[in-house]
Amino acid sequence: MNSTNLDKENLFGKNVDGAHANFPLRLLTATSIIGDKVENTKGEPIGKIRNIMLNVQYGKIEYIIIEFGGFTGLGEKLFAVPFSAIS
């Protein structure tokens, strides 16, 4: 498959078959990553993505809101982590 087809498929979120389906990934929906687990650089779980903060003036993600700790919705703490710090 050529790169033009991959660009078109990534633009519309459609997947293809094969070893490199939907690669390179360019676009994700916010709802597809909200709730995802977050790990530190050692691979240890530290929380989950609670929300995404957008800079509407420049059209880019500024912060990822990460929920740390808590149990069944009680006692969790929310932290805004710069998007540039996420890998």
Task: Pick out its properties.
alpha+beta, 87 residues, 2 domains, four-stranded antiparallel sheet
Q: What do you see in this structure?
A:
With 87 residues, this protein is α+β, with helices and mostly antiparallel strands. It folds into 2 domains: 1-27, no CATH class; 34-87, Roll (SH3 type barrels), CATH 2.30.30.240. It is built from 2 helices and 4 strands, in the order ααββββ. Strands 1-2-3-4 form a 4-stranded antiparallel sheet, with no helix packed on it. 2% of the residues are buried. The model has no long low-confidence stretch (mean pLDDT 79).
Short description:
This protein has 87 residues and is α+β, with helices and mostly antiparallel strands. It has helices at 3-12, 30-33; strands spanning 37-39, 45-55, 60-68, 77-82.
Write the SSE topology.
Blueprint: H1 3-12, H2 30-33, E1 37-39, E2 45-55, E3 60-68, E4 77-82
Antiparallel strand pairs: 1-2, 2-3, 3-4
Mean pLDDT: 79
Approximate strand percentage: 25-35%
Helix fraction bin: 10-25%
SS summary, helix count: 2
Biggest sheet layout: 4 strands, antiparallel
Instruction: Name the poorly predicted regions.
Output: none
Strand line-up of the largest beta sheet: 1-2-3-4
Tertiary shape = globular
Q: What is the H level of CATH, i.e. the homologous superfamily of the largest domain?
A: PRC-barrel domain
> What string, H for helix and E for strand, traces the elements in order?
HHEEEE
